[in-house]
Amino acid sequence: MKYGYDNDPHVLSGLIRMYAEMGFLNVLKYLFLGIGEGDLVSQTTMVVGSAKLGDIGLARKPFDEMPVRDVVAWKVMVAGYVQCVEAVKGLELFGVMEMMGGLKVNESSMVAVLSVCTGWVLWIRGNGRIGSALVDMYAKCGDIKMAMDVFMKREEKNVYTWSTAMGGLAMNGYGDKCVKLFSLMQKEGLKPNEVTFTSVLKGCSVAGFVKESVKFFGMIKGYGIEPQAEHHGCVVDLYGAWGALLKASKHFNNVEMAELASKKMIELERLRTMVHFNEWDSVDGVRHKMKSERVIKVPGLSLIETHA
Where do the PPR repeats start and stop (predicted)? Predict the structure, then answer.
């Protein structure tokens, strides 16, 4: 220190780690005042040290002052919230990180964040928002097994938790399981909302379930819900999938599959009539409506084997 290296970022980071290990919170606060703008390494080290000593407020200050935050900085801040038993804020911050453009979350960072969040959240009972956030987070990361594990371990599940789980299954290509989960929710006596119907219709689209799609779409108004562009979009995806299969079947002279696809297309025509498509006379019309209403559509999946 007497040689004037106290402002060197490497020396400063070493001091922060040392005092954090020793439990000297007041010294950390003093060091924080001396960091000034600092650099990313020393600021990140301050976040880790402050959170370790239980002062999440002090940890947040250098994080907010970072001119540029890399994935590591976001990860340690989220972990800091969970470590200080503020898992909800940690998950909310993770959501902000996910929406930030230009950030590439590597596998080790994602595993660390998910593991530390799960470790605390599974102990919290009765908070549907946390459960839904975790299910959604795991599903978007492609770990549907963990997403459903979190879902099943929830003692109390509200309509949002169920809807999120169904959406996660559909998103990962498990349309049939999505539809089954909807049936289980009905048996539990929960009233579906518009998000629920979007999820189950996505499941029908993924699995190629035409009859179920017609059935569920017909149920929407029965629950006092006006069909939204997202609901129509799921039906359009299903229509497009069977139409593509019909063309492929004709191309490869697969008569049996062509007959099946034609049958499904006819059933879907009944649905088009039932919902009064009006400006939906073409797929382009539906897409234009969704675009005008600024609906963000997750690309659909179709898991139909032709055996051709």
Answer: 158-192, 193-227
The Cα–Cα gap between 142 and 158 comes to 23
Three-state SS string over 95-156 comes to HHHHHCCCCCCCHHHHHHHHHHHHHHHCCCCCCHHHHHHHHHHHHHCCCHHHHHHHHHCCCC
Report whether 82 contacts 56 (CB < 8 A).
no
Q: Which two tokens stand for residue 308?
A: 């051709």
Q: What is the pLDDT of residues 7-66, one digit of tens each?
A: 666 677 778 888 888 888 887 777 776 655 567 888 888 888 888 888 998 889 888 888
Whether 165 contacts 147, CB under 8 Å: yes
* CA–CA separation, 18 and 11 (whole Å): 11
- Kindly state the DSSP code that residue 281 receives in the 8-state scheme: S
Tokens of 242: 């069977």
Confidence of residue 114 (pLDDT cuts 50, 70, 90): low
DSSP summary character for residue 221: G
Note the pLDDT tens digit of each residue in 25-41: 887 777 776 655 567 88
Cα–Cα distance for residue pair 4/115, rounded to 1 Å? 41
Which range is least confidently modeled, 106-110, 137-141, 172-176?
106-110
The CA distance from 246 to 297, in Å, is: 24
Cα–Cα distance measured from residue 58 to residue 43, given in angstroms and rounded to the nearest whole number = 11
3-class secondary structure, 294: coil
Q: Which token pair is 132?
A: 């839904």
Query: For a pLDDT cut of 70, what percent of the chain falls above it?
Result: 69
Length of the chain, in residues: 308
- Spell 54-76 as b/e; 16+ CB within 10 A means b: ebbebbbbbbeebeebebbbbbb
Assess contact for 182 and 200: CB atoms under 8 A.
yes
Rg of the chain over Cα atoms, rounded to whole angstroms, equals: 25
Q: C-alpha angle 250/253/254, rounded to 5°? A: 90
